[in-house]
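User: What would this chain look like folded?
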Amino acid sequence: MLPPVPLRAADSPFSAKLQEGQFADVFHNGRRAIRYVIAWDPDRYNETYKPFLHVFDAEGASPITSGPGAKQYPHHRGIFIGWNKVLFAGKPHGFWGMGGGAHQKHVKFLASNLAPDGALLAGLVHWNLKDGKTLIEEERTQVLLPSTRPTLALIDFTSRLTPVAGDVVLDGDPEHAGVHYRPHDDVDRKATKYLFHADGVTPGRGKDTDLPWVAEQYTLQGKTYSVQQMSHPDNPKGTEWSAYRDYGRFGAWFKKDLKKGETLTIRYRFRVAEGDLLAREEYQKSWEQFARSPTPKSYK
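Assistant: Here's the prediction, encoded as structure tokens.
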């Protein structure tokens, strides 16, 4: 359940609605902006093996991000996090495509708050093996920030990852690890394009690292959208990006060794808008604002 705070506040442009055990919707000025999908049901394993965040269209009616019903790569879901090789006790475990029964389970909400400066949802997520053994405890905090059109959603994504069963290695590659954004499955693949902070940037394995941000433009059902994913400068160094797929999935990943009980905090901001890509200078300004912003508090 959500903590006992109002789902509507008189002094806030935000409101929220919970479908118990399924999802939490957050509204901005009366329009559904995001949906945090939290369902977990072992009998619906393929549909519910990871929590993720949907972003909605200008009418607040339909998601413009992908979900479990996608025809291609249905494990790519909205804004999501995972590594396809979580090494534990000498064995790899998949927390990307969720093979072998591994799953990310939303356990409970730790905090929620509706304020003039943002709508916050903080939850506890267990990264479990098939038998229910928890390898990693994640505190996932997502904040919908105030914005004006053409921006549809300005989202701060903070993840605190703590191994609880023993030491782990977060491993994989740019295509199958990290924090990513996946547009709806029905994108026009011929219209997808990317923009980087400078000319001559080459994303990918063994390519340019530690990019401050990447922006993407995609077309869905005749409408054009743009997304900027910003990486906080305190994130692990050596971060590589996947940002070239015509179906629009893109994001940042890194390899990291974590000791039992050690907490890694990573931060990203997503700016999702209607229309074409903005000027590079506008995206750089947004990243600089994000880089100066304080780290959201922990609620554990």
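The domain at 14-292 is CATH 2.70.98 (Beta-galactosidase; Chain A, domain 5). If you want, I can go into more detail on any region.
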